[in-house]
Design brief:
Chain A: It is a multi-pass membrane protein. Chain A: It is found in: Cell membrane. The structure holds two protein chains of two kinds. Chain A is mainly alpha-helical. Chain A folds into two domains: 48 residues; 239 residues, Orthogonal Bundle (MetI-like fold), CATH 1.10.3720. In chain A, 69% of the residues lie in helices and 0% in strands. Chain B has two domains: 187 residues, D-Maltodextrin-Binding Protein, domain 2, CATH 3.40.190; 189 residues, Periplasmic binding protein-like II (D-Maltodextrin-Binding Protein, domain 2, 3-Layer(aba) Sandwich), CATH 3.40.190.10. In chain B, helix 11 packs across helix 18 and helix 18 runs antiparallel to helix 19. Classes of the chains: A mainly alpha, B alpha/beta. At the A-B interface, helix 1 and helix 12 of A face helix 1, helix 3, helix 18 and helix 19 of B.
Chain lengths: 325, 422
């Protein structure tokens, strides 16, 4: 049998043409989908690339070069900028301060927003009202809120709200922000941050609470579990993933603190007399006021490193996006 | 059904494209492109920070229009910018790019800008008129023998005191630091504190204390402020008897605390004088910061704004022509600018002498303080040096050992200064 003997098998059960057509159509459909995807996401991706990743990369290179009043690269100095920052007592102090601040404010915000979420979720009537009422402060800008805290609630004059309340109990007018022993300014900073943030995290917790199946609570009730037991054994474990995600957001927000510290301690000139400063306040002065972009970039990466480390540590301990088992 | 959804998809795509195109056009066109460039060959962009006083924006636009009338080839595009706290940051960012202004204002003059080639030397703009300018200003704006900016107004800061309250407490206007501390203590009574220097209780006082002891911040290429450990140590005494007002609703640059009687003496700027006069009539006087002791000298901080030309501007010659026309020659406009909106001293001594507002009373005294006691920050002074210095002084006020604390901050500032001058 030779090849020439056998005619091509035109008599196949499935004719080739109709078989190829759907495949081609399927292919071109796929190509069209890819094209559409590319067209629709390209502006976003290109923007993200240029304004985020190129900028981050550039800043990384800047952190290894001497760049005062310029963002040109070329004057390489190795790790000098990092070394200069880390040997700066004021910057090291700000790093210590921010870690302590985070360790204090995150559990507080967490407990307050979770507690509020559980309470609001239990309310039978007017739940939407309470939800909105507690969320509203999240819409206020940090700077505006800090001005209110500084100038009307906690101002040092006798007519400030805190001092008016104090006077009812016979206390002398106190300069809240300026008193350093005891450090009363922490009351101002912590209440402000709680007021601004608790509402938003409360909403996230409520969303988590509402996804817990009702039958678990019914079963617990049948078994005679009280409210505290129900919270400890059902609510809290079922909120695990929500909690881990919220903790992460809180940690990052706390480590990046700037606005309210800056507004409350600013004096109309450059800073200097503030009792505590955050790393971003330090870097704002170095990079944007003194125009030392090299050291400023180095500081930005040190802070990023700190955030990454804390996040990894948190993931290690609590497990981020781990399965529920 | 299919046709309709396809159409709407295409419609959606078309709309998105229009949106993207629109944004591109919107971003690429100059948002401030309102220059009256009709027929002008050259349009200069000039940046101002946002003055709080009413009428200032219209005034600078009027000056620009008058210049264009006299020089038809040159138009000025006035860009009214950010407020004081943001202005320098925005200016610095703009100077790094291609869209930098040709002419701009500077609050704190930075020698580093001149050394890094960002500023055009302006000696030829001053010309023969140079000797008529406030000497303290010329020193301040000179870097390595060349003038790099021109002062458009002098803001002198002085100590306001309430005559009637001092009389009631039986104190005379203080002429030494010891007298100031003592006066503050005696003036403190229920609801009134003796002295207001800033909500943080520090304000400008560390500078004033050092200067009043006869110590400079920077001497040549050395930072020397630690020599003022004795006078800055005085901050602790000042705070010891709680006679300093802290945490008022407005800060030291606003006369609120003084006008409302929350403080009997306040360190504030000349800009507040009209408001104080309106509120208190002639029941107030102004003083320089007293000499630290008999061997020291009275001082006052001299601030204000200057204008400079970007060295990379394509129209340096035209920009110089404009600055010379406005800030050297047009004395009427300089007086208008100094006293018709806010209250500032014109930078040319002769012009200041001609200004009727400075002919009598506290204003006349303030103008005298400006020329005799005025002192500006060194042009090498940076935010980092300021923050380090103020932080050290604040620590001293709380009880840290003055010499050791200041020495440490000074070493850090020295490293900063060395970096600038290489």
């Amino acid at each position: 049998m030779t090849a020439t003997d056998t005619p091509p098998l035109h008599t196949d059960a499935v004719p080739p043409a109709p078989a190829a057509a759907p495949r081609r159509r399927r292919l071109s459909e796929r190509r069209a989908k890819i094209l559409a995807f590319a067209v629709l996401t390209a502006p976003m991706l290109i923007g993200l690339g240029i304004f985020r990743y190129v900028a981050i990369g550039w800043s990384f290179l800047l952190s290894f070069s001497e760049a005062r009043r310029t963002i040109a690269l070329g004057d390489w100095v190795g790790l000098d900028n990092y070394q200069q920052l880390l040997s700066d007592e004021r910057f090291r102090g700000s790093l210590t301060m921010i870690v302590l601040f985070t360790a204090l404010i995150v559990p507080l915000t967490f407990a307050a927003s979770l507690g509020l979420a559980v309470l609001v979720n239990r309310v039978r009537r007017g739940r939407a009202f309470f939800r909105t009422a507690f969320l509203l402060p999240a819409a206020v800008s940090y700077v505006a809120a800090a001005m209110i805290w500084k100038m009307s609630l906690f101002s040092g004059v006798p007519s400030g709200l805190a001092n008016t309340l104090g006077a009812l109990f016979g206390a002398d007018p106190t300069p809240w922000i300026q008193t350093q022993s005891p450090p009363l300014y922490w009351i101002v900073l912590v209440t402000l941050r709680l007021w601004l943030q608790v509402g938003l995290y409360m909403i996230l917790f409520i969303a988590g609470l509402q996804s817990i199946p009702r039958h678990l609570y019914e079963a617990a009730e049948l078994d005679g579990a009280g409210p505290w037991r129900t919270f400890r054994s059902i609510t809290f474990p079922m909120l695990r993933n929500t909690s881990v995600a919220i903790l992460l957001l809180m940690l990052i927000a706390a480590l990046q603190a700037f606005d309210e510290f800056y507004t409350i301690f600013s004096t109309g000139a450059s800073l200097g007399s503030e009792p505590v400063r955050t790393p971003l306040m330090h870097l704002y002065g170095v990079a944007l006021q003194d125009q030392d972009y090299g050291v400023g970039s180095a500081g930005a990466f040190l802070l990023t490193l700190l955030i990454v480390l804390v996040t990894l540590l948190q993931g290690r301990i609590l497990g981020f996006a781990r399965d529920k088992d | 059904m299919t046709a309709r959804s396809a159409l709407s998809r295409r419609g959606f795509l078309g709309t998105s494209m229009l949106f993207v195109a629109g944004s591109v056009v919107a971003c690429s066109s100059d948002p401030q492109g309102t220059a009256a460039a009709n027929g002008a060959d050259v349009t200069l962009t000039q940046w101002y920070h946002q003055y709080g006083e009413e009428g200032t924006q219209a005034a600078v636009k009027r000056y620009a229009a008058e210049f264009t009338e006299a020089h038809p080839g040159i138009a000025i595009n006035v860009v009214w910018g950010a407020d004081v706290s943001q202005y320098e940051t925005k200016l610095n960012a703009a100077l790094l790019g291609d869209d930098a202004p040709d002419i701009f204002e500077l609050g704190d003059f930075r020698a580093e800008m001149a050394r890094k080639g960002q500023l055009e030397p302006l000696d030829d703009v001053y010309g023969a008129a140079k000797s008529g300018f406030n000497k303290a200003d010329l020193d301040y704006l000179t870097v390595d023998g060349k003038l790099y900016a021109i002062k458009t107004m002098d803001d002198i800061m002085v100590l306001y005191y309430r005559k009637s309250l001092l009389k009631k407490a039986g104190v005379t206007p203080p002429s030494t630091f010891a007298e100031l501390t003592d006066a503050a203590k005696k003036l403190t009574s229920d609801g009134t504190k003796g002295l207001f220097i800033g909500n943080d209780g520090i304000g400008d006082s560390p500078y004033l204390l050092a200067w009043s002891e006869g110590v400079d911040l920077i001497d040549g290429d050395k930072v020397v402020y630690a020599d003022a450990a004795r006078s800055i140590g005085g901050l602790r005494d000042l705070h010891a008897d709680k006679s300093v007002l802290l945490g008022f609703t407005t800060d030291w640059y606003d006369p609120g605390a003084f006008n409302q009687g929350a403080a009997a003496m306040q360190w504030c700027g000349l800009w507040a004088l009209p408001a104080v006069e309106k509120e208190l009539g002639d029941d107030f006087g102004v003083l320089p910061w007293p000499a630290y002791d008999k061997k020291g000298r009275a001082v006052a901080r001299l601030g204000g704004w200057s204008q400079a030309i970007h060295a990379r501007s394509k129209h340096v010659a035209e920009a110089k022509k404009y600055l010379e026309w406005l800030w050297v020659k047009q004395t009427d406009l300089q007086i208008d600018w100094a006293v018709k909106y806010g209250f500032h001293v014109p930078a040319q001594t002769e012009v200041a002498a001609k200004t009727p507002e400075f002919g009598k009373g506290a204003a006349k005294e303030a103008a005298r303080i400006s020329t005799e006691h005025g002192k500006s920050f060194p042009a090498e002074w940076t935010q980092a040096m300021q923050a380090g210095f103020i932080a050290a002084a604040a620590a001293v006020a709380k009880g840290a050992a003055p010499a050791r604390t200041l020495d440490k901050a000074q070493a850090k500032a020295q490293a900063d200064l060395d970096k600038q001058t290489v």
